[in-house]
Design a protein that fits this description.
mainly alpha
């Protein structure tokens, strides 16, 4: 919540090195770990993704949970809620039913548990981007701007921008994306890029 690069910060923690010494490869590994653990990946899956021995992957996961001790509690509480109610909710109250959460089939149950853990996170992010899109569209029309929102790609929005509106559009987008869900405790960071095409904008 300090505006840090989460993948770089994770790498610094799990490899026990200063933030400024994190290498691109360590950041890449940390990014894989961040997303894999949220999706419920175990040591075998992680070792395959990172191309490292399973014992090494197991140690990385253990280090991760040691550094982010509240995460395990979140996993357990979320799965318990899902087992008790048969569904989970995004922050805005959107419901996802999990019919296999109490299944006798271990594979089906594990899959439902992963969905239970991931849905409040990814589902809330999906809610957030959709609200931002609605608010940006309304503001573009209100200001009678020439720039148009043309595409959403995961957590990214793409615009056909008129050059004279560059700074105004940039501030509008940052404002609406960071305030889409006003009462979030986590600070939302928005990066922008400009180019003649989508590739250049990155």
């Amino acid at each position: 919540n300090k505006g840090l690069d989460i993948h770089k910060a994770t790498a610094a923690k799990i490899f026990n090195i200063p933030l400024e010494e994190v290498t691109p490869d360590q950041r890449r590994q940390a990014k894989t770990i961040n997303f894999s653990i949220i999706y419920g990946a175990g040591a075998t899956n992680l070792s395959r993704q990172l191309g490292i021995p399973r014992p090494e992957a197991k140690l990385l996961i253990e280090s991760y949970f040691k550094e982010y001790s509240g995460l395990q509690q979140y996993f357990e509480e979320t799965v318990k809620f899902a087992r008790d109610h048969g569904y989970v909710l995004t922050k805005l109250g959107r419901k996802r039913k999990l019919r296999d959460i109490n299944s006798r089939n271990g594979l089906a149950r594990s899959n439902a548990e992963r969905m239970a853990i991931n849905t409040p996170i990814q589902g809330t992010a999906a809610d957030m981007i959709k609200l931002a899109m609605i608010n940006i569209h309304k503001e573009l029309e209100k200001r009678k701007m020439k720039s148009k929102m043309i595409m959403q790609v995961h957590d990214e929005l793409v615009f056909d921008m008129h050059k004279e509106e560059k700074e105004e559009l940039k501030q509008l987008v940052i404002d609406k994306m960071t305030t889409a869900i006003p009462d979030l405790k986590v600070k939302i960071k928005v990066d922008t890029g400009v180019g003649n095409n989508w590739l250049e904008a990155h």
